[in-house]
Amino acid sequence: MPTPKIRTQAFLANLPLFRELSAEEIDRIALGTTEHHVTRGTVVVNKGDPVEGFHLVVYGQIKLSLTTPQGDEKVVEIIGPGFSFGEALMFMGKAYIVTATALADSLLLHVRRETVFEGLARDPQFARMMLAGMSRKLHSLVSDLESVTLKTGRERVIGYLMRQEGGGDAADAPCSVSLPVSKAIVASRLNLTPEHFSRILHELVADGLIEVDGRDIRIVDPVRLRQMP
Fold first, then answer.
1. What is d(CA 113, CA 192) in angstroms, rounded to the nearest whole number?
2. C-alpha distance from residue 65 to each of 51, 78, 87 (Å)
3. What's the CATH code, domain 8-150?
4. Cβ–Cβ under 8 Å, residues 217 and 157
5. Is the CATH number of domain 153-226 3.40.50.2000?
6. Where are the domains of the chain?
7. Which pTM value belongs to this model?
8. In this predicted model, what pLDDT tens digit does every residue of 126-171 receive, in sequence order?
9. Where do the DSSP E strands lie in 24-105?
10. How far apart are CA 22 and CA 15, in angstroms?
11. CA pair distance 215, 163, nearest whole angstrom
12. What percent of the chain lies above the pLDDT cut of 70?
């Protein structure tokens, strides 16, 4: 079955990164953009590959990961629809420091470096939007670092569950969340071993705070869960 085509301009125009740009500027960016359909398990880029632009995820999920000297994988980030990766390295002229792998069949848009640089030279608004986007990523990375260094594994798991769709931080009534990726990947993202992650889930079940059915997790008592040490 043929893969449906998307209208690149329409997708770009709805991204926070490009939302305030003119239609003419969006058209120019689209000319320097290519579609990449990748199947689950495909390595999009390897650590050490040259950065020739940045990627936007239209649908699917991309895992950014590192491999430790012992051969273990550390998941750095999961990139979902509407988000991007590679911008900072593109500006630095550095090679990729992570490996990007498709966790599901995905559609990516690759925006060439030259297209971005030309847009920056033409439109100061584009430069401000790029800076804002990278600032949001830096803030997220600092928050992740704070979580890993200052919070217990239990606090990390609870925080992750409450941030998922349907389990927002302000939720007071019972609600359900579905893990977007496998438990092993979530554990790595939270800097936990799969065994430690499973043990914490079992403890929360035993405390009557959640119910677990595969990747589906029902938060029975959000108020008490947020108050747990």
1. 36
2. 16, 9, 16
3. 2.60.120.10
4. no
5. no
6. 8-150, 153-226
7. 0.77
8. 888 778 777 777 777 777 777 667 789 999 999 889 888 554 455 6
9. 33-38, 43-45, 53-59, 62-67, 73-79, 84-85, 99-102
10. 13
11. 15
12. 93
